[in-house]
Design a protein that fits this description.
Layout lengths: L34 E6 L4 H6 L13 E7 L9 E4 L3 E5 L4 E5 L4 E11 L4 E8 L10
Antiparallel strand pairs: 1-2, 2-7, 3-4, 4-5, 6-7
Length: about 140
């Protein structure tokens, strides 16, 4: 068994390392904040009344993932957020969240807003999926 690598001293290829594992720090004492994952779907009258597009209420037909993260006693300026295709990494002075996302997302088209009165960070990410008979637009 031979490992094909550009450097013979490496013990694994970069393709074998899962995305986001570089953020996983088991020795970090910060606690994980409470969070909620919601799925968002845009539907029109052709979906609701006629069922013409074949969409159903499942997550397979959703276009966006909305993640609501509770961050009590946190200021907007203290939040560090890094989003990759399959991983959300959030860091504050008191909290840390490494979240492996249920679907791959387009990390360049995300939005985040901090609702200071509720102390919630709301992150909306566009799901990046292959076109099929449901997701064709």
């Amino acid at each position: 068994f031979q490992v094909k690598s550009e450097n013979r001293k490496t013990i694994w290829n970069t393709e074998e390392v899962p995305e986001g594992c570089e953020f996983d720090d088991t020795w970090d004492p910060r606690e994980q904040p409470e969070y909620e994952i919601l799925f968002k779907q845009s539907v029109g009258t052709e979906d609701v009344f006629f069922g013409m597009t074949g969409k159903d209420p499942s997550t397979a037909c959703c276009e966006d993932i909305v993640i609501k993260i509770k961050l009590p006693e946190t200021k907007y300026s203290d939040i560090t957020l890094d989003i990759q295709d399959k991983v959300l990494d959030l860091r504050t002075p008191k909290k840390k969240l490494l979240l492996h996302l249920p679907y791959p997302v387009n990390s360049k088209e995300g939005r985040a807003r901090f609702l200071s009165e509720e102390e919630i960070l709301e992150v909306t990410l566009r799901v990046s999926r292959q076109f099929d008979f449901i997701n064709f637009a």
